[in-house]
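Quick one:
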Amino acid sequence: MTNEQILREALACFADPARREAYFQLYSDDVVIHGYAGLEPGLDNVKAFYHHGIWAAFPDAAVRIEDLINGEDRIAVRFTLSGTHRGPFQSIPATGRNIALKGMTILRFAGGKCVERWAMADFADLMAQLTA
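Output:
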């Protein structure tokens, strides 16, 4: 499989609660993700970030690729994460609101796994959606 196919399959799993654990096959055990404050390197930390930070608050979360640029060992993606706010997120109780978190990320692959990722997402806009 190409790196793009690996990413697209991982995102299909991300959006399917029955297959979510397979999303993590995207990452190497020692993956480093830059851009999310407090997220330490390593797959266990990435799992905790998604399980406790994203999916607990937005159980129906899905990622839609808006643009994708495929390089030799890197993929750049402009994305929208959508979902319904059903659990606490950063001390904000569930609102039941639909959200759209826009962002961009660059993934670097080695041996069919993402080993490093740089991410920027508009969390200020997300907070405004949850508190407006």
